[in-house]
Amino acid sequence: MPRTLALLLTLLSCLAGSGSVQAAAFSIAFHYGATLPADGLRAHDIVVVEPEHGHAPGALGPDTELFAYVSVGEVHPQRVYLADIPAALKRQTNADWGSVVIDVSQPAWADFMVERIVGPLWQRGYRGFFLDTLDSYRLLADVDPAAAQRGLEQLIATLAARYPGIRLILNRGFELLPAVHTQVFAVAAESVHRGWQAGTGRYIAVPEADRRWLLDRFDEVRRRYALPVIGIDYLPADALDDARALARRLLAEDIIPWIAEPSLTTLGTGAMEALPRRVLVVYDAAEASAVNYTNAHRYIEMPLNYLGYVADYLTADDPLPARLDPRVYAGIVTWMTGGIAQGARLHRWLQAQIDAGTRVAILDDFGFELGQHGATRLSLALAPPPQAPLKLSASDPIIGFEMTPRPRARTLLPITAAHPEAVPLAELTDAAGQRYHPAAIMPWGGYMLDAFAVTELPGVEGQSRWGADPFAFLQRALRLPPRPVPDPATASGRRLLMAHIDGDGFPSLGEFPGSPLAAQVLLDDVLKRYRFPHAMSVIEAEISPEGLYPAQATKLEGIARQMFALPHVEIASHTYSHPFKWRQVFDARDDDRAADYHLEIPGYTPTPEREILGSIDYIRNRLAPPGKPVRLLLWSGNAAPDAATLRLIEENDLLDMNGGNTTMSRRRPSVAAVSPIGVHQGPYFQPYAPIMNENVYTNDWTGPFYGFRDVIDTFRMTGKPRRLKPINLYYHTYSASKVAALKALHTVYDWVLTQPTQAVFPSDYIAMAHNFNTLSLARALDDPDTVHIRHADALRSLRLPPEFPAPDPRHSPGLAGWADGPDGRFATLAASRASLRPARQAAPAPYFVSANARLTRWQRHTAGIDFALSGHTPLELTLSHPRRCQLQANGRTLAATGHDGQTHHYRLAATDAEFALRCPA
Asked: How far apart are CA 467 and CA 452, in angstroms?
């Protein structure tokens, strides 16, 4: 459940008191739609929803609480409980809304509401309620207003008594407050400055007398009852600038704002506004059978992830949204490999988005014929077809990122950037002296065509190179500002380290004296030796008594039990029969292996249920120590399940990983060989293995068997100059079957252990990968310089680009500190919500730099800082503080092992400790 609003108010009041900015008590949104626009709504502390749509109270994460809308004085005819309301309570119909007006003066109505309306919602987990239509009794001519008010007062008192801790927001109901204000959390009212006339269908300015009356009531609520007030005003959904101005006006009047269209089914504007973290990627449906294999996913999503953005995919054939909300989407990227059947439709849609102010980045090909008119609309000019040879006569520094582009005259689109504000990134000159611009930054975004995007190297399988810097191009084309980036490659200021092992080869015999089982060698020579977090998996059909090797099953299961009993090993399944192809329909262009490959088990046809759920049940029942969880599935084969298979993972509360193809090394020196964090299949997300396994480095296990040593190059190249991935030691059991492969494993382990890392279980990383998609960045309308982070429940690391201002550790709640890295500062959060306020004073403050353990507690106070760390190996930590400060660990003074100015390093034999830093004045 989300934290209580009392804690929320304490946090935000501290934030308000830490500087000159007066913050709203909380940020609230109202959204009655069937689907919640999560990215926009997560910026708010409270979201009032229509509960009959089935929204779970925790649907938006730990830092946004859902309140249930409840109509008190009227009941809509679609409510399922309408027929059960006693006839004597149903008095007349509200002609404007078609709802039934209730006689709230009768005690029977309070009983009905408490038991039949609020009670079921309380059972579902709702703890906050927005009580609407409190004044509908005024529509009834024959009801005593005083009796109606007493009925409403009794209802509120009964709710507070029956459901301790309930939080009630009243929509108006000012006349009730003298009696019930102690049971009320906040008071709202509609149409403070702007209203909606349902009869005429028009937005109107509220008459001055009505506005003044309402402002006086709000002032009385604040002054007499010390309750926050909420103003709900109405404007069209596309009037974003006007909505922001109106919200700021309400904030200046000490009113918590919500500005939206009258149906409250689109994203409105409140005290807090989400910063966009999504980019819509449009690709050609004919390119591949699944998004996993498209150029857009393979090449452009990783740079988007690195910049902090989540990719949403549509094909050019899909229904395309009429409008993209700029608080959710930072722009559009298209990747077409040539003309497409829906090219004209795509062109019209892109132009409409550009006209609406959305930035567009076009890669490889426009996907449609420009024509003179289309080119002009995009500020481009058509030129005569080029005459070979072409010469790169001018270029921006981002060109030639990994290779010098080699465009061909016969495929070059003959265009130039014609707008005076356009910035050509490359200029080509042909034999006749004609100039062309194959890449440019335009007022509407930018484009990078053909060889200036990615080139597949001829004759070298799987080798590609970027002709221009994709990170810089996306930033410039989409006008992406420097902002904090959720970073699942880092924790507590250090690069993540994890290891996971696919169970393949568990029964193999090792090429060592006595021919021991590879699994036994792995247990004795690796898992017992390197005691940091691992995930170990088995293939059920390889080791069970009903599997392929029943004569060895007792010994194989015994080894598995010993592995799974190790405290630094978490348990995973690698399926029942190791399917290679996970999709029922598969395009041969995507992979060249047999579609039905899996272990040959007589009479068995693979099903996702047996492969996933069945294998996990087998491990739970036969191999796992009592009480140790079994929740992790490591995908086999092509690791490309479809949405229906991923649904099994979510419905059964499991975790999953594998897939991707990160192999950047000296043999593949390209960021094109670095995969994104994972892949979305419909509403489901599959985290990829950050780094690929030894099978890739040993040429599909054909040799050289020491080839896995090259993964060290991958670790280095994905760590600098950009930290793109964690250090992920990923291999199979069969690596312990050969002398050369085992030596390579030791070489890799030994190198890894020399690096400053924080070791985590793969399940921890998986949670961080998911949290990358849901973490929210926001700004308050009245404090645009401070970035607010919400829903950092698993991922507590943010990379701050060099251009992003250094935060003030004293006045940034939830921020512990930061470590300098190869591509910016790596900030560590101490809670799921935090605020980064730019430093405005020179006086330094102590802060956390890094540790090889998770920061589990952090409290800054006048006497110093109290904090706690929990890890898997003896503690190492670094703090920034004046030399006069003293650190205590578990109650004993701890001396620094070294220091560099304000930076002090410490070590401790324990893996968990409580610390107190004290700095005398």
From this structure: 4
